Amino acid sequence: MRCDAPGRKWMVIMRVFVTGATGWIGSAAVDELLAAGHGVVGLARSDTSAATLEAKGATPLPGGLDDLDVLRRGAAEADAVVHLANKHDWGNPAESDRAERAAVETMAEALTGTHKPFVVANGLSGIVEGRAALETDSSPDVGPGASRGGSENLALDYTRRGVKSVIVRFAPSVHGAGDWGFVAFLAKAARDRGVSGYIGDGSVEWSAVHRVDAARLIRLGVERAPAGTRLHAVAEESVTTRAIAEALGEALGLPVASIAPEDAGEHFGFVGGFFATPMAASSARTRELLGWKPTGPTLVKDILDGAYGG
What we know:
By secondary structure, the chain is an alpha/beta fold.
């Protein structure tokens, strides 16, 4: 055990099993957990990933998302599980969804009856329409054929079976220097096309969070979130797609232009569908529940400071 901070209660040090441990969000989460004094076991698909984890002081567990026996063992031997890995096979989303559901079900079964924390990642796409998503909004994705295999609702179902399931919904932009997510794809499209584009009038709204703030929320979710909680990793509730395009244009020295919706797929590639999708969300309930206070730079500041080239 250790004291979390002056005047705070003593906190149990845990052995945390992390999937996606060397990914963009996962690597920051591993750093955050280790800095807080927790032990980390990270799923490692390669020798390079294993060496990266060992260099940080984490223990690698060789395997991938399809190695269900490895996932079962990692979960069973841990005090808490953080599931961040996803195949992100944009060419075959059904395969990504299948693997995601199988992984969540396998680890949840291993945790059944233990009341151990099981933090599961999800996105904000499709949660609600016409307004910012709230933590109280349930995901409409249910069952094996749903997006991400319905893994959010599947994990929450296990709270009735003695698993302390916690959902963390991430903003579409988890940004920072080195990001290889959606904004990095938008920056690449801008460089390839010679113009930084937004779709239509650019009024579609995204939420955003800095990677370090997201990692801190994951750690707080492991340590403090009650079973059945949905958390929103959102620092900025709303950033318009036009503002993103204008910042990329300024950073990259490129003109900015509207792209017709029917041309978005050709201009942006697969990310065009996401860029046209509203994904604004509130994190007021998350902040109140866990005392989470994002401190990282805004998405536009990161872009203008060269996080995506310039």
